[in-house]
Amino acid sequence: MPIRRRGDRWQADLKAPDRRWRVSFATEAEAKIWEADQQARMARGLPVEPPRSSVAHGPSIGLKAACERTFENRWVRTKTEKIRRGQVAQLVAILGDIQVRSFSLHEVDELRRVWNADCNSAGTIRNKLSALRVVLQDCADRGEIDKVPAIELPRYKEKKDRILTLEEEEVGLAACRPWLCNLVMVILDTGARIGEAVALGPDDIIKDGRWLRIWGEKTGSDRAVPLPARAAKILREGPLSPGTSVSNVRNHFINEFRAAINPRDTQITPHTLRHTYASRLVAGGVPLPTVQKYLGHTGIEMTMRYITFAPDTGWDAAMSVLERKSHDEPVAQVVPIGPNSVPRAA
User: Fold this and answer.
1) What order of strands is seen across the sheet that includes strand 9-15?
2) How many structural domains are present in the chain?
3) For a tag on the chain, would you pick the N or C end, based on fewer CB atoms within 10 A?
4) 191, part of any domain
C-alpha cells in the first residue's frame, strides 16, 4: 500500500504474514524508510519490527554509513585497521544497508547463523559482534537509536589446541584432491595461515631456496621461515589453489580432510595445521622466540600456548648446576641454623 497522509501525520500500511501494520510517522520520508526496512526484513524471513517511539522523529542513518563513520573515527591507522575493515564490510554484506534504528536481535541472530555456517570459531564471532556493538554504541551516543541491543557475546571455550598426529596427517592427505593436498602440506611445513598460503608462489622462495617469504595477512609485514624440500617442490610447480576463495578452501578442507579423519571432530580446521606446525617445532627443541618469529606472532604470549610441547630437559640442566659436578669447584660448607647455633665472628 502507498504511504498516505492522515491529518498532520503520514501512515505506512504494511501487510505481514501474521497481521496488517498501520503505523503513523511525522514525515513521509520516515514512513517510507520504515516500510522499506520492514519489507527487507520480511524478505529475509524476519518478523516486522515496530518503530521505536523516542527515535521516530530523530535523525536516521543506514548501517553502511554508520560502519564507515565508526571505522574512520575509531580504527583507521590502528593495529586492527585491516581486521575491522573486513568485519564492518561483512555486517553490511550480510544485513544490507538497513536503517540502524530498526536494528534488533533478529539481525544478530542472522549474523550468527551466517558465521556459524562459515565455520567461524566462537572467538571470531565474539570479535565481530564486539565490532558491531562499537558501531551501535556510537549511534546511541549520537541519539540515532534509543540504546544498544543486549548482544550476548560467545564465551571462549577452554580447550586445548587440536594437534594432528602423523597417522591423521596421512589419512587426511590421502582423501584430498591434488591441489588441496599440496596446500595442506605447505601449511604443515611452513606454518602459514590459510589466507597467506593461497597467495604463495615460486617468487616467494628466497635465499638459495632455503627460505620462504610469507606476507603476514594480520600483521601487514612479511616474515621468512625455513623451507623444507617437500614444500619447495610444491611451490615451484605453481599456484597452490585453482583461483578459489578462502571460504571455498575451508569448505573443501572440512568435506575432504576432516571427513576422512573424523567428520564430527569440529576442532579440525585449517588452523589446526598451523597448531601442528608450531607444536612439532617446539617438541623438536626449537626455542619459543624462534617459533614466535616463524609464526608471525607480535607477542611471545601467543606462542606460550605451545610450551607444553617443549622437551623436558630442565631436570638435567638444574641438577648439573645444583650438584656442582665440577671437581675443581669447592663445595660450600653447610652452616647449621637453629636456636643453638653460634654465629661466627666477622
Assistant:
1) 4-6, 9-15, 20-25
2) 3
3) C
4) yes
